[in-house]
Specification:
The chain is mainly alpha-helical. It has helices at 28-46, 48-54, 60-66, 84-110, 118-149, 168-192, 198-226, 246-269, 281-296; strands at 68-69, 160-163.
C-alpha cells in the first residue's frame, strides 16, 4: 500500500545526489516513516467520537446531577461536579485489574506479552463507551418520569426525589472505557510511530482529545438547529432540562458510536503493523564469534 510514495526516493536525472532537494528527493527511511503515519490516520480518527461521548459528563450529565438528590446524610451533600470521581475511580480500578489480573490470565491463552493487542483493547473500550451512552439515555427517561410523577416537570430549580447514584453506571462505564480505549490508543501511537517521531505520536493522541471536544460542540450546535420546535423548544433546552429530549441526544451519540465501531473494526482488520526486525540468539552468537575472531587476527 502507498507504493506511489516510493517515487519520492527514486533518483532521476534532474536530481543532485550530493545535495538533493528534500522536496523532490528523500531517503527510503523517511518515505517509510510517512507511510507509518498515514497508516495510523484511520485508527486515530476512530478515537474522536469516544472523547465526544466522554465530554458529556462535564455538561449534560452534570446538569442531570444538579436536579437529583445528592445527599449522603441529612447534612452532607455531594457536589454535582464531584460525580466525576466515579469515572476516575472506575478507570484506576480497571487499570489495576487489567494489569494484575486480566493480562496474566489471558496471556496463557493468546501467548501475547500484552495479553491482547492494543487494537483489541481499543475495540473493547469503544463497545463499553457505546454502552455508557445507551444506559445514560434510559437513566434520563427514569429521571423525567420521576419529575413527572412528583409534579416537578415545569420546576427545573427543584430537586427531584431520585438518588444521584442512578447516574453512577454511566460515569463508571465511561471510566472503564477510558481505561481500555485511551490507554490502548496511546500505546498504539507510541508503538507504531517511527522511532524518530514518537513525540509526534503523543501529540496525535492529545489532538484526538481536542478534536473530540470540538466535535461535541459541533454536535450540540447541530442538534439545537435541527431539533428546534415551536416556542424555541429543542432536545437540549437551556432553561428546563425536564422538557428536553436529552435521552434522544444520548442515543444519537450511541448510534454514531456504533457506526464508528464498525468503521474501526474494518480499519483494524486491514491495518498493517509496522515491521519489526527480530534478532535471534543464533545470530547474536555468530556476530560475537565474528568479532572475537577479527580481534585475534
Amino acid at each position: 500500500m502507498y507504493r506511489f510514495l516510493d517515487k519520492a526516493a527514486v533518483v532521476t536525472e534532474e536530481d543532485n545526489v550530493k545535495s538533493p532537494n528534500p522536496w523532490k528527493l528523500n531517503t527510503v527511511h523517511r518515505v517509510e516513516e510517512l507511510k507509518s503515519l498515514i497508516r495510523m490516520g484511520p485508527i486515530w480518527a476512530a478515537g474522536i467520537l469516544l472523547i465526544t461521548a466522554y465530554a458529556q459528563q462535564s455538561t449534560f450529565s452534570l446538569q442531570q446531577a444538579k436536579t437529583l438528590d445528592r445527599h449522603l446524610t441529612k447534612s452532607f451533600e455531594i457536589p454535582a461536579a464531584s460525580m466525576s470521581v466515579f469515572t476516575q475511580t472506575s478507570m484506576l480500578s480497571t487499570i489495576i485489574f487489567y494489569d494484575r489480573v486480566f493480562v496474566p490470565i489471558i496471556r496463557k491463552f493468546t501467548g501475547l506479552e500484552r495479553g491482547i493487542s492494543f487494537l483489541t483493547r481499543m475495540a473493547i473500550g469503544f463497545f463499553i463507551s457505546l454502552l455508557a451512552t445507551l444506559v445514560a439515555g434510559f437513566v434520563e427517561l427514569k429521571r423525567k418520569d420521576a419529575a413527572m410523577a412528583h409534579g416537578l416537570i415545569d420546576l427545573p430549580g427543584d430537586i427531584i426525589p431520585m438518588s444521584v447514584f442512578w447516574l453512577m453506571p454511566q460515569y463508571c462505564l465511561h471510566g472503564i472505557a477510558e481505561a481500555f480505549m485511551s490507554i490502548g490508543h496511546l500505546e498504539f501511537f507510541y508503538d507504531q510511530a517511527p522511532e524518530s517521531m514518537r513525540s509526534t505520536a503523543t501529540a496525535l493522541f492529545w489532538l484526538s482529545i481536542s478534536a473530540g471536544s470540538y466535535t461535541s460542540t459541533l454536535l450540540v450546535t447541530l442538534v439545537h438547529k435541527f431539533s428546534a420546535g415551536p416556542g424555541g423548544s429543542n432536545w437540549l433546552p437551556n432553561t428546563n432540562l425536564n422538557r428536553g429530549k436529552l435521552e434522544n441526544f444520548y442515543w444519537l451519540i450511541t448510534l454514531l458510536q456504533f457506526v464508528n465501531l464498525i468503521y474501526y473494526l474494518f480499519c483494524a482488520k486491514f491495518y498493517t503493523f509496522k515491521p519489526v526486525q527480530v534478532w535471534k540468539a543464533e545470530d547474536e552468537k555468530v556476530e560475537e564469534d565474528t568479532i572475537e575472531l577479527t580481534s585475534h587476527v
